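Give me the fold.
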Amino acid sequence: MPPPQGDYVLLVRTPEGDAVGSAYYNLASSNVDYGIHVSRRHWGRRIGTRLLVEAAGLASRLGRRRLCVARVIRGARPTTGDVRALAFYRANKPKLELNVYRLRRGQP
């Protein structure tokens, strides 16, 4: 589902002209909605890190003190993708605070 037009900035890293990664920066909340996504064949090339750095730079230029990324973990155990995503955010947080919250059905 694409974000509402005008409400978000889409950041895309395109080496060699290919769209290989994306992040949606929410101008209203300073969140990276939907997380950071990089094409699997381009993993390990620091593209996700670059997208996160660009989003943090945009937040800073807009006078925001925080940049938030939410990862929804469904079920009792994190999936392989959840583990990989959390490891990525932990590895790229030198000045960021990482809070992991587990939400269960029926909880606010």
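The chain has a mean pLDDT of 80.
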